[in-house]
Amino acid sequence: MEVKLALTSATALDTEALILLETEGSVRPDLQKALASSYASGEIKGKFLEFTLVHGVPGFKATRILVSGTGQPGKLTEAGMAKLAGAAIRFLKGKGLRNAAMALEGDFSTAGFVEAAARGAVTGNWEPDYLRTVREDLPRPIEKITIVASGTGLESALERGQIVGEAANVARDIAVEPPNLLTPLALADRARAVAAANGLTIDVLDRDRMQQLGMGALLGVAMGSAQPPALIVLSYKPATATSGSHLALIGKGVTFDTGGISIKPADGMEKMKYDMAAGAAAIGAMQAIARLKPSVAVTALIPAVENMPGSRAQRPGDIVTSLSGKTVEVLNTDAEGRLILCDAITYAKQLGCTHLVDAATLTGAIAVALGQVRAGVFSNDEELAAKWLAASETAGEPMWRMPLDEEYREQLKSVYADIQNIGTRWGGACTAAMFLKEFAGDTPWVHVDVAGTAWLDEAKAWLAKGPTAVPLGSFVNLVMTWK
Ligand code: BES
Ligand code: MN
Ligand code: ZN
């Protein structure tokens, strides 16, 4: 989608639909006359995500006006603006329109709102239907959105929003691919394409190199599959670094999770194609980072494997030696995410990363605790946790801090190895995080469990069904605000 900024007046804009914001409890003077009866009947209240489409409003060159509620005065956040823009785009797309404009007037004419509107419009335009060949009944994307606003610094704000929105759509393109097509090596190819197009360096470790290095935990998960594993390492180096930090963004890349020998029930297993959504978010974030050029070094690491049962698969009871040297007793082959992440975490430290953020569709337990609303955040470092939560807030990716008491570690005590890969059925998200903490050690680390938030089972007004790209926006904001 083409995203443009216009500093002209909204009334003179020639567009199929002009999106105008209506605040709850007030009446727009420029619509008062034309829409008097709609206001009087209470059809236009200005409630958040309330849309009214009207034709031929006198005083406007636009063919249609989409009156779009913002909610109560002063209540609309930047994250809310992104949702509003996305929902408006989806509404107009449903009407078969191909271009639109959105007026951000008065208090809404700020860099933050322009950025959010651009991002929301781009992500709202995405659909998960790339393999549908019979397309007559499918909505066609909006081709062009013009954001009308006035002020300084709005061009670069618009560009930032577009860059982050497009990066989220790249992550969703990858996450939505079915598991027969998106194998670990295919995921590596997607990362190579992003690297080549955006000037990032990439290193893909194959099974031999992982064996030489001693990544026994990651390789154990890969044993059951005919698809070879890959550890994808994407790096961004700033022209001039203003910070000595080196951030690692680590994303779980299980291209399909059957559970392995500890096999999952058939019902709903197809959803385990999105067990690489956090890895896709890390790849997409690197595209945005390469384009936004922050002054801090960032490396993304995506351990990519398929978790399959079979005669070569790892067994419950196997003991593997991780890259850290710690031995791990695999009591449940379905707790595979932590096994691949622990080696990626150790490798990130070996590469010199000073701060680690890992994201993973790690546990069903986080969805039991927080539902499909907030992702769970675990951390061994107050400063990094605070930075991360602030980044997630502006990204509109709701999260919640979860505990890491030493008591959880007791559940992971193994008689035969240094640690075991599962605890009891209680506090499953916390014991999974506790497992990873062991490998982060003293390095500042944040773990984000996105098992409940990486995928929408039903479309929202502002976003299609399917991958959400969470936590891509938080990744990007953390990097862009790093000091
Ligand atoms: N990929 C799953 C977690 C998951 C569940 C993601 C639902 C998205 C939706 C993970 O590998 C897994 O299987 N976790 C197990 C851990 C258990 C065996 C300790 C789980 O949550 O049941
Ligand atoms: Mn699993
Ligand atoms: Zn999994």
Structure, briefly:
It contains 15 helices and 20 strands. With 483 residues, it is of the alpha/beta class. Bound molecules: ligand BES, manganese (II) ion and zinc ion.
Largest sheet composition: 9 strands, mixed
**Number of DSSP helical runs:** 15
- Could you give the distance between the termini? 33 Å
Structural class: alpha/beta
Mean of residue pLDDT values: 98
Distinct small molecules: ligand BES, manganese (II) ion, zinc ion
Radius of gyration: 24 Å
Proportion of beta-strand residues: 15-25%
| Anisotropy-based shape | elongated
Total beta-strand segments: 20
Percent of residues in helices:
25-40%
Pick out the low-confidence regions.
Answer: none
Layout of SSEs?
Elements: E1 2-6, E2 17-23, H1 29-32, H2 36-40, E3 51-55, E4 64-71, H3 78-94, E5 99-103, H4 111-124, E6 144-148, H5 154-176, H6 184-198, E7 201-205, H7 207-213, H8 216-222, E8 230-236, E9 246-251, E10 253-257, H9 277-292, E11 297-307, E12 319-321, E13 327-329, H10 337-350, E14 355-360, H11 364-370, E15 375-379, H12 382-395, E16 399-401, H13 407-410, E17 419-420, H14 428-440, E18 445-449, E19 455-456, E20 466-467, H15 472-480
Parallel strand pairs: 1-6, 2-4, 2-5, 5-6, 9-11, 9-14, 10-11, 13-17, 14-18, 15-16
Antiparallel strand pairs: 3-4, 7-8, 8-11, 12-13, 15-18, 19-20
The structure holds ligand BES, manganese (II) ion (MN) and zinc ion.
